[in-house]
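Quick one:
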Amino acid sequence: MKYSTRSRYGLRAMIELAKQYNKEPTLLKDIAERQDISMKYLDHIITPLRASGLINRKKGGYILSRPPSEISCMEIIKILEGSLSPVECVDNPDICERVESCVAINVWRDLKEAQEKVLNSLTLKDLIGHKKSKKDIQ
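Output:
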């Protein structure tokens, strides 16, 4: 599965807010500048994150609603991406008459579960403490 720009940029925006946790609220223009995201696009990303309660507006800027250690990557991606299922029948088996006899559905379920496991295991705190190394690139 390919994640959308919305999810990639949303995660980057949330990392910026995590870096500023317990400091002054962060202005959207500052996030946009630091992450090279257009203000218009960033505004579309911030809206669902705010509606979900992950971030709050304060003094003209934004803050995380919880500590970075309590916000998983999965929460963010799910808000911005929706289901991580590679095929619709995993989430909605009623759409396929072959779901009961389909051997491939186990592959799709395993893929979804593996993605969710990784994303649930990582928090914003983990990401702000992570430094990219050559090992990460290889």
